[in-house]
Write a structure and sequence with these properties.
Structural class: alpha+beta
Number of helices: 10
Helix content: 25-40%
Number of strands: 10
Largest sheet: 4 strands, antiparallel
Strand content: 5-15%
Strand order of the largest sheet: 2-1-3-9
Number of domains: 2
Order of helices and strands: EEHHHEEEEHEEHEEHHHHH
Length: about 300
Amino acid sequence: MESVLNVSISRFKSAKSTIASSINLLNWLADDSYSATVKKIREVKTKEERDNLKRTLPAVTISGEFTERRCDALIKHSGLICIDIDAKDNMHIEDFGEMKKVLSKAPFVAYCALSVSGNGYYAIIPIKSPAKHEAHFQALQKIFAQKGITIDKACKDVARLRFYSWDDEPYVNHSAVLFEDVIEDVPRNIIRQNTFIPDWTAAVIQVEDCINEIEDSSVDITSGYKNWLNVGFALASEFGESGREYFHRVSQFHDEYDPDKTDDQYTSCLESDSGTGKYITIATFFYLCKQAGIASSNARAP
């Protein structure tokens, strides 16, 4: 069938096995042969018991086919990256059990399911340039951090093993779009934002594209009170309370930026239900960005 998941990858009998065999990823994901073992792992009380049972499970290398389980033994990249999102790394997210639903809104997520322990999720993402595997991972790490989500940094390893797991209701998108962003230089420490933003709409991606460029070039699009006010109205109209962090990130490059005043201004924009503000949409934000030489490739023009 046509699917970004219809690729060949390597399978290993266990974590200790070095002998690889080839398997189709779609077949692997649909196989329920070891589901009883997975359910038992999720029921046991101690980590030692869980680890012992886990070692009996087969595993795969989602990112490709290998002669052996080493990065330099790659035969062919699958065009996919698999990321882990563990509950222990994301304690600030109150509704962590809804993470699968959150990831289903991201257009580049092809598959999402519970990890073998049941305490996290894994997601499979198609990438544009397999030769830039780690650069794509670093871009994913940054984008997820901006949303308040920490992903396991060990997932940058192209030969990383994924143990068999089972989820009765996985999220599947056979037509997921290719993830194109890359960060080719080693990034500075990636700091997770304080606010968890569960939205992955096109507007979010476009706005974040623009804000990333604003931050990279330190451009001020809020010069003049009217522009600052309109940016606030635009973000408030599109994102509500979730746009407050965006407003700070855009406003910080003004010479007189004050976090408290910026916070008060955004609150006023949220509470305004009359006057010019009610006619301003996110298109105004994109227009101001374009005037400053910054634009998301898919941004809506006013």
